[in-house]
From TrEMBL:
Source domain of life: Bacteria
Keywords linked to the UniProt accession: Hydrolase
Single GO MF descriptor: serine-type endopeptidase activity
Protein's name according to its UniProt entry: Alpha/beta hydrolase family protein
Annotated DUF3887 domain residues: 28-117
Any one biological process term the GO annotation gives: proteolysis
Taxon lineage: Bacteria, Pseudomonadati, Planctomycetota, Planctomycetia, Pirellulales
Pfam family, one: DUF3887
Serine aminopeptidase S33 domain boundaries: 164-404
Gene3D superfamilies: 3.10.450.590, alpha/beta hydrolase (3.40.50.1820)
Length: 438
């Protein structure tokens, strides 16, 4: 099981209080203590039937070893807190490891069985200093029509308009409108930072987030068109219909996968006045999966036999994607990330940098030099393909990671669980570029 799937940011919860005053706190603490002692069979015994099927002892062990591999051994338990969601009691227990803190989010049903388990960052989001809430307001909007309407937020500068505007397009994964990753909310930073500079911004729930069940039931037929492109194109039209928005000055900003798909978004909707890529990848997605896996496995030294086997499995899956034998009938379990074959077939032969040569509109390409997910190799490919055009600008940032947040040394996944904000230099560069693109 992918650890990233379990590192989910929690919702609003009750403030910390004494453990003995919190219903189910004793059960939750006893459960995580079993994890700390390696008693996974005993821990699973407290699961409901669905959890027992989805997270058996072997998988629970794998998840816990992934956590302790990053954070070190569990040393102690801290405070507990609680929230109530419908018929469920949700208890948060702070876990203090040798190299940091997490919270265990343990969900109990009406029969005191564990119906959900998540590990959430202990840090909390803080709005950056460059956000000035007196200079904008936010309103709820709906993006798209039909079966998949999406909830969105429009950050609208104060004043009469007409305002230049930006649509934010997510990276891979089922993101919310803030593109929440751990305690960090890069899309909120971008939206409110740019709105403070007089530029309207629309951010929205990703289809795979808001409509998870339906998307899960149709996973074998999903491509990036259904996942991302159609909704980004619809979001542009949503912005164009807003009273204070200049319909001729709407820009699309894509992060990671969203940046990679800018040429397809441009083909789907001719309206945007320009495009902005933040860590947009240019190489085949399956190659990035293999490269990222290898990078992470090598962070703590040479590969041992177990890690080499993990890498070999990923390599076999990547080879399957590239094979001429790949068909829509190839089982998803044989492919990277368990993603169905149709998704990979749709991306076959797609070269974002080459496709960008057909975009006859301004582009801004931004890249963090510490990014291990999308690297300076991708940045170089953008430059090679479209660097000679007068309407294209390139900026890289030596200290920024994949989230465009400041750090030092080699970037690590655990970095994303440290509260931070998109660098002010990125907000400033994007705002200035938009204002100059007339």
């Amino acid at each position: 099981m992918n650890l990233a799937l379990l590192l989910l940011l929690c919702t609003q919860v009750d403030p910390p209080t004494k453990t003995q005053e919190i219903p189910h706190a004793g059960l939750a603490r006893a459960f995580v203590e079993r994890l700390g002692r390696g008693e996974f069979d005993q821990a699973v015994a407290s699961f409901d039937d669905t959890m027992k099927r989805g997270l058996p002892a072997s998988k629970l062990r794998e998840v816990w070893q992934g956590i302790t591999g990053q954070y070190g051994p569990l040393q102690s338990l801290g405070e507990s807190r609680r929230e109530v969601v419908d018929k469920y009691q949700v208890v948060f227990v702070t876990l203090e490891f040798a190299r940091g803190k997490l919270e265990a989010k343990v969900v109990f049903d009406s029969q005191d069985r564990i119906a959900g388990l998540f590990f959430v960052p202990a840090g909390k989001y803080k709005s950056p200093a460059y956000v000035d809430t007196t200079k904008f307001s936010e309103v709820e909007v709906k993006v798209g029509k039909g079966l998949f309407p999406l909830a969105g937020t429009l950050s609208l500068p104060t004043g009469d308009g007409l305002f230049a505007a930006v649509v934010l397009v997510h990276g891979s994964g089922p993101h919310d409108r803030d593109e929440t990753i751990g305690p960090n909310r890069p899309f909120r930073d971008l939206a409110q930072g740019l709105a403070s500079q007089g530029i309207a911004v629309l951010r929205y729930e990703k289809r795979t987030k808001q409509h998870q069940l339906v998307m899960a039931l149709t996973t074998s037929t999903i491509t990036v068109k259904e996942e991302t492109v159609n909704d980004a194109a619809a979001a542009v039209e949503t912005l164009a219909g807003q009273e204070k928005i200049d319909p001729n000055r709407i820009f699309v900003l894509g992060h990671s996968l969203g940046g990679m798909l800018l040429p397809r978004i441009a083909a789907a909707n001719p309206r945007p006045a320009g495009f902005i890529s933040l860590a947009g990848s240019t190489r085949p997605l399956e190659d990035l999966v293999l490269e990222q896996t290898k990078y992470i496995l090598l962070l703590d030294g040479p590969l041992n036999a177990e890690k080499q086997q993990q890498l070999n499995v990923i390599k076999q899956q990547v080879d399957k994607v590239k094979s001429a034998d790949l068909s829509i009938d190839t089982p998803a379990r044989e492919l990277p990330l368990g993603v169905a074959a149709r998704y990979w077939l749709d991306l076959r032969d797609y070269d974002p940098a080459a496709a960008a040569q057909r975009i006859a509109r301004p582009m801004l390409i931004l890249q963090g030099e510490r990014d291990y997910q999308v690297t300076m190799d991708d940045f170089a490919r953008w430059k090679q393909a479209i660097g000679s055009r007068n309407q294209v600008k390139f900026v890289s940032y030596p200290t920024l990671n994949h989230l465009f947040m400041v750090g030092a040394g080699p970037s690590r996944p655990i970095e994303y669980l440290t509260p931070g904000n998109v660098a002010e230099s990125v907000i400033r560069d994007v705002a200035q570029w938009i204002k100059s693109s007339r």
